[in-house]
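Q: What changes when fe (ii) ion is included in the input?
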Amino acid sequence: MKTYSFVTAKKILFGVGAVEQLGRELKDIGAKKIAIITDAVIKKVGALDKVTGMLEKGGFDYAVWDKVEPEPALEVGEAAIQFTREGKYDSVIGLGGGSVMDTAKAAAVSITNPGSLKGWVKEVFEKPLAPLVLIPTTSGTGSEVSNAAVFATPEVKYVLYSSLMYPDIALVDPELTRTVPARTTANTGIDALCHAIEAYVSLKANPITDALAVEAMSLVAENLRAAYAYGDNMEARSGMSLASLMAGLAFGNAGTVIGHACGYAYVYPATKFHFPHGYSIAITMPYVLEYNAISNLQKHATIAELLGEPTSELSLREAAFRSALAFKKLLVDLNMPTSIKEVGVTKDMIPSIAKNVFKSTAHVARNPRKVTEEGMVRLFEKAYEGKLECGT
Ligand SMILES: [Fe+2]
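A: The predicted holo structure follows.
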């Protein structure tokens, strides 16, 4: 009998209109003077007004720092820390996508711990975080329930990772995702699906993460196309918010595998691309599913079925390989590329892209099939041609 563990945010608050309970929740965790970490887009679309409105109603002292950038560099994190320390805030709200929530985590660390972000990456900090509330405005990253924060430049990626870094409250209100543009809905929604799939097949999966991953996959299958097609469809938006949260809970404990490692591989020195996170993973995912299928035919057959492929007439092997086809069909419906040739990858880049996969050592170690350089070259060659084994 294996031993399992499962950790996450101290409290999850989910539902349309959940943001209206923010004042009461902040009082419960002892927040008085609050730094709101966000970005300029969130300010424009009205989500920030909703949050500040709640704070004013509750009589809180607060200030807004809106300079987070997509995939923030270390300097962005350090600037947020400087703002938080200079203003002597006692608590933090992160309102935005994954980059914003990651930056908010660093700001909450800085209230209770000496030192700088770069130092914490190397040595890990010691004291628990100041009160922290994370409020996602996209459905995808799951950062509101994870204990990691990523800061990157095109050359280097810094990941701050600590068992102390879970927020006090993950507040998920689908209404805040209503105005997310269709392209971002697709890129973030498909990231949530990859979190669920990869957590499900990970060597670190357990029955708890499996249950969450299965439900997340089925919610994405039911809702992502509709949320992409018509952003005001709040039923689809709610389904995607829940899918993202559940996938976050799954991969926050089981981890992701080479789907993410392949997505991270389209970088320096192999290429000069700067693809959005979910997009870079999605364009290779059908070929990752095909590579991994033989490691666990049953789980891959279940993925195919959850994503809507009829499998009852098929052999287990055939059903497992349909998982790749099911994913590819979703890419087509979301107007996303189904080969890496379409995004500008050339054949001569493939050997060094394949090498980059091995930089994500933890992802490679959790992958259900042994990862070889030859195997990765073959995987990217298939992704280049856009051809699956089953001929589609
Ligand atoms: Fe991701």
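Observations recorded in class: The longest strand covers residues 91-96.
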